[in-house]
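REQUEST ID: PR-0412
SUBMITTED BY: lab tech R.K.
PRIORITY: routine
TASK: structure prediction, single protein chain
INPUT:
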Amino acid sequence: MSDYQPRIQDMQFVLSNVLGAPDQLKALPAFDEVDADLMQQVLEEAGKFVGEVVAPLNRDGDEIGAKWQDGKVTMPPGFQSAYQMFWQAGWPALSAAPEDGGQGLPSVLEIMLYEMLSAANHGWTMAPGLLHGAYECIKHYASPSLQETYLSKVGTGEWLATMCLTEPHAGSDLGLSRTKATPQADGRYALNGTKIFISGGEHDLTDNIVHLVLARLPDAPPGPKGLSLFLVPKFYPNGERSAVHCDRIEEKMGLHGSPTCVMRFDDALAEIIGEPGKGLNAMFVMMNAARLHVAMQGIGLLDAAWQKADAYARERRQMRAPAGQEVKPKSAAEADFIIEHPAIQRILNTQRAWVDGGRVLAYQTAVELDRIKHADKDTAAQSQRWCALVTPVMKAAFTHQAFHGGSDCLQVLGGHGYVREWGIEQIVRDARVAMIYEGTNEIQAIDLVVRKIMADGGQSLNQLLDDMKAQSQTETAEATQLRKLTQSIVSAAPQDPSLGHRVADDYLRAMALVMLQWAWQRIDAALDAQTPELKSRWQAPSKAFRQWVLPEFAMRSHIIETQCQAA
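STATUS: complete
OUTPUT:
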């Protein structure tokens, strides 16, 4: 079956017709010369690169995979040359500042690029996936001397970067980290410890790798407040190799093209980033950027699974007529394509509803990120509220849908979906980890409900819904009910401190559905001025959202209400 191909026309329709993103961005002085034509050109060129260079490597990435031997990792065939083409063409530097070697373009173009890359070849895309977050971390927290050495190299993608957080005994609870940082006479620090699950900790894609490492100073207090952030490269500026070793790579369910490394720091000389004891502050700049990228992985992988299922359904014939029609014997030549079957249409249109609506939310989030950087104070505060609330929803809801919806797409292929030949089983395997890394989906839900919604009594959520109401000029019954559910949780939580944790997953799903509803309101409104031919592309998933997706809200609402009443 053919490789994934970006559907630029669909993406551009969301960007320009639904969101009016070019006009939103032109209002920011930093992008006053960025118009719809330029954005279209960038997307078309990105689509060509992804479809022609990156997508064809996906099969070998999975079947051959990254190989470890004697501390060195060799990437799958074609990965290195593709990456060299990628960074030399300027793709990693789309949104980086021009003074750092970047192109200074809007963040939404970077987000759309990584959606395509993840769909085409998730394993390969893991390598540059942390670049933007590492760039922002170094730019905002590193010393001028560190910035001079590393900022442009990371910003342009000439050197790749890692995020070294997890240890064998410390996964989501980073406060348990034990890696030590011992001050040295020259002002540097010697790092000692082991980090696991380090994506791209060792590879042959670039000449150097920049490791950002959480570690604990000798006098640091226990817990997360005792963690500091350090930078240690694979090679120092003088060419000397650091004492950072890759002890092995993990054998995984999926993502075989991405080496997941066990990294040992053995008196590795490093420099501190930011202030002592405030490592998490600097690291969260990187993690928050990574979480939106992971949401794009979910949307991209679901789109890739849908493409394979849709193509198969249009070619596969069955001898039975669709439901509602007279059943009569047919020859093979007269058999129905399974795309005509209502059950198959339901699967395909449902996943299309998630992808299309997800793009609206993701692209708008990227626009809000640029507003935070470049808009006036009041607008930036509004955008910060959007990103704080919507990012955990995007990460959790769309990685969940990539796996479960991808499995539904596999179902369309029947037995052919379960065998390797057709490629869709790889998508399901690759997608599963996105529900886990960069903060598990359960942690995203707890972050949303306990640390954000409950922390301010639901005020930020109500303000967000007010903003959405102003944009769509109406408030749905589900949005109004979400306000009531929020107040019920806030009111009942003092009597039951565990309530927020228990209902967090249900609340996040309910909020995701309200956000998707808003997205489809925007899509439907944009279709009013379109041709009948273009409308027909979007009407089926719009109907599927209302019929098959949104009804889940009532179930989630009932669960939350029941738990609040029992508190």
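NOTES: The longest helix spans residues 377-412.
REVIEWED BY: pending
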